[in-house]
Specification:
Elements (H helix, E strand, L loop, with lengths): L20 E4 L9 E5 L9 E8 L2 E6 L17 E3 L3 E3 L6 E3 L5 E3 L9 E2 L1 E3 L4 E4 L6
Antiparallel strand pairs: 1-11, 2-3, 3-4, 4-9, 5-6, 6-7, 7-8, 10-11
Bound molecules: FE2/S2 (inorganic) cluster.
């Protein structure tokens, strides 16, 4: 059983606007997912939760929201379950998602994916939600 399907990250409550700054790539460890909570107007109890996955010079962003029950894969950095550059696993019922595209590899997420959030990176390594993304 899966959470009700939502097609795009920007349809979620308090989704960040395109262009939202996410800081420098150098602040992200290579091969270790980074939890990021954005204050996008939902108040302190309802941050917009992202997972930032860096592999070398590339960073992918997914909404920290399991396709199974729609809850975070983890709410604390120390709770993250992952294989560097390969996969990230929900710590509730252990659905596993592919690092490179967020697709389900095994567990309670068959046929589904993490929601990918498009990023941009400036020449000096500053990351942002893709400012050219048309919601
Ligand atoms: S909530 Fe069940 S696997 Fe994530």
């Amino acid at each position: 059983m899966s959470a009700s399907p939502l097609l795009h990250w920007h349809q979620l409550p308090h989704a960040p606007v395109p262009g939202t700054a996410l800081g420098p790539i150098d602040a992200l460890p290579d091969g270790v997912p980074t939890l990021r909570e954005l204050d996008t107007g939902g108040g302190p109890n309802q941050p917009f939760r992202l997972l930032l996955l860096r592999s070398g010079a590339e960073v992918r962003a997914y909404v920290n929201r399991c396709a199974h029950f729609g809850v975070p894969l983890a709410t604390r950095q120390a709770q993250l379950i992952y294989q560097p550059h390969a996969s990230i696993t929900c710590n509730v019922h252990y659905a596993r998602y592919r690092w490179t595209d967020g697709s389900c590899e095994s567990g309670e997420c068959e046929g589904e994916s993490l929601m990918s959030v498009p990023l941009s990176q400036s020449a000096d390594g500053q990351l942002a939600i893709d400012p050219g993304y048309d919601t």
